[in-house]
Specification:
- This protein is of the alpha+beta class and 135 residues long.
- The chain has one domain: Nuclear Transport Factor 2, Chain: A (Roll).
- Helix content is 28%, strand content 48%.
- Strands 2-1-6-5-4-3 form a six-stranded mixed beta sheet.
- Helix 2 packs antiparallel against helix 3.
- The longest helix is centred in the first third of the chain and has 18 residues.
- It is globular, with a radius of gyration of 14 Å.
Amino acid sequence: MSQDALARYKKGTDEYECARLYDELCAYSMDKDGEGIRRLCAGDYALIHMTGMVQTRDEYIAAVLDGTLNYYSTEHDSIDVEVAPDAATARIRGRSRINAAVFGGGRNTWRLQQDLRAEKRDGRWVLVESRASTY
């Protein structure tokens, strides 16, 4: 876990837990930990790639595990969290430099921005959507 990116949030707060979701999604994706990704992402999770392609949670996990998406390192520049007043939903923006080789392309480092939505379900924060872009 990237303590520097999380240091601005007090442990145990909703903001910290949501920032941790993004950090752990990056870590589990690098580690090719399908079960870890499954725990973080709701069953109805959707990843919208820069190209507009949409993957379900299970499609994303399969692409990570089969080598279609290979993530090698992540350095967070920022993780910003905005929790709704009712503490039931949150928006997370992660900006990170990601070293990856995806969809058969060469390995490169991208400045990747993920705009994520999270919901608190059964008392636990889960990711429901992620939109990827560059910054």
